[in-house]
Amino acid sequence: MSIRRGMSRMVLLIGPWAIKVPSGHNGLRLWVNGWLANLLETERWRSVEHTQSAPFFAPVYVSLAGLLIVMRRETPLQRRLTAIGCEVLPVANLDNNGQNVGMRDGHLVVFDYGGAENYVEIRV
Ligand SMILES: Nc1ncnc2c1ncn2[C@@H]1O[C@H](COP(=O)(O)OP(=O)(O)OP(=O)(O)O)[C@@H](O)[C@H]1O
Ligand SMILES: [Mg+2]
Q1: What is the pTM of this model?
Q2: Per-residue confidence (pLDDT) for residue 38, from 0 to 100
Q3: Residue boundaries of the structural domains of the chain
Q4: Average pLDDT, stretch 50-79?
């Protein structure tokens, strides 16, 4: 098991799961952002899961009112995407920090898509 900290969430990596909870280490406002990010990821996953956009998103399996979500664990690429990589993904304004996107079955997969600035494109 390992622990990762983002700006607004703490993430426990256990086996095939990533458990994400809002984190207060940067103050209450970012804790609220973490809660909102969990809610948005859950909502967005549900909106894409039965569409052609689904393979590009790490699934959210469980949400407890966004206070805790269980997402599929991915392996971060550890490098920023090129402009072409960003273009391929059905997510606008991706935080391209090398830690939010992985690779699975030969294509990119995003696992931080709960930002208010991220718009998700649904390909039917
Ligand atoms: N599904 C996942 N699989 C593997 N690692 C993950 C997953 N989700 C998050 N992580 C790890 O946890 C870190 C923080 O998660 P995430 O980026 O979702 O939180 P955040 O608070 O929105 O972060 P930030 O705004 O700093 O990017 C990520 O940078 C990554 O290393
Ligand atoms: Mg992130």
Answers
A1: 0.96
A2: 98
A3: 2-119
A4: 97
Q: Residue 86 and residue 96: Cα distance in Å, rounded?
A: 8
Q: How many A from CA of 103 to the centre of ligand 2? A: 15
Residue nearest to atom 28 of ligand 1 (CA): 99
- How far apart, in whole angstroms, are the C-alpha atoms of residue 71 and residue 11? 10
SS3 content of the chain, % helix, strand, coil (to 5): 25, 30, 45
- How does pLDDT run across 88-110, given as a tens digit for each residue? 999 999 999 999 999 999 999 99
For ligand 1, what atom is nearest to the CA of residue 111? 1
Distance in Å, CA 50 to ligand 2 centroid = 24
For ligand 1, residues with CB inside 6 Å are 4, 6-9, 11, 13, 18, 34, 37, 58, 71-74, 76, 95, 99-100, 111-112
Residue 114: pLDDT band with limits 50, 70, 90: very high
